[in-house]
Amino acid sequence: MFDALSERLGGIFDNLTGRGALSDKDVSEALREIRVALLEADVALPVVKDFIAKVKTRAVGEEVIRSVKPGQQVIKIVYDGLVDMLGGEDADTSLRIDSPPAVVMMAGLQGSGKTTTTGKLAKRLSEKGRKKVLLASLDVRRPAAMEQLAILADQCGDSVSSLPIIQGQLPADIARRALNAAKIGGYDVLFLDTAGRTSIDEQMMTEAAEIAEIAQPQETLLVADALTGQDAVETARRFHERLPLTGLVLTRMDGDGRGGAALSMRAVTGLPIKFLGVGEKLDGLDTFDAQRVAGRILG
Ligand code: GDP
Known about the structure:
This protein is an alpha/beta fold and 299 residues long. It is built from twelve helices and eight strands. It has helices spanning 3-17, 24-40, 45-59, 62-65, 70-85, 114-127, 143-155, 171-184, 202-215, 230-242, 260-269, 290-297, and strands at 102-107, 133-137, 160-162, 189-193, 219-225, 247-251, 273-277, 285-287. Helix 2 (24-40) runs antiparallel to helix 3 (45-59) and helix 10 runs parallel beside helix 11. The longest helix is centred in the first third of the chain and has 17 residues, at 24-40.
């Protein structure tokens, strides 16, 4: 992820730091190139415009031009701008799971990595947080998805269980049964893995909204595939209109993508990115850190 962008920015910065003094024209030219690089990385146009305007205000003017290392200073300003774009250094990436059983609802399109991410989060909470976790699949149209979740629960160890599957139940009924089982079983966290579709449709949204109403989740996470670029951003925006989303998980960050979705998500939706999926295995999950990602982009 971000390889092409990283290389482009590296070239622009080499040019800036290679010369001693910088004029406002040099800085403006560099910003024009950065603008193109971000657009080519598939970052949403309004996000790019806002970023360039902010960076320009800080980078053009006496302070940078007169500084001892003007090129370095521009790089620092761009870095700060990227951290800002990604939600800032103090962005809250923790999960609110304080009143057991805390319900975490997982939403997203089919294939986005929702079920895998549910398993990854369950493993993390049981191992690092010592939580007792229950997983319930509400994907009644895809028996394979229900079985996949049960298999993941088994792989997570003793503190993670899956709700037994009862054929013929509606998603809302499963949600109620899961809530009861979580209360009776003394679980700390209940994950509701909702059904996805290959594209957004009204029925999926209505079903997900109904489940949110019943389960009153403390966290509702949208899982989006970072490799799908602006489609992922549009998906997040549409889900956010209908569901009380509290955060985002971007999957396939280990893939070879341009990175535009990751860079636009926060600014377009206003939602914090909480986790990054970085592999197919259950330990392939990173807590999101804006500074780390910005640092990686700038090399
Ligand atoms: P769902 O339909 O949204 O529940 O998607 P799944 O969880 O079944 O994931 C679809 C595919 O994506 C599976 O083959 C997963 O192993 C894979 N996958 C999920 N997250 C990641 C990730 O972060 N990186 C990679 N490389 N693959 C992932």
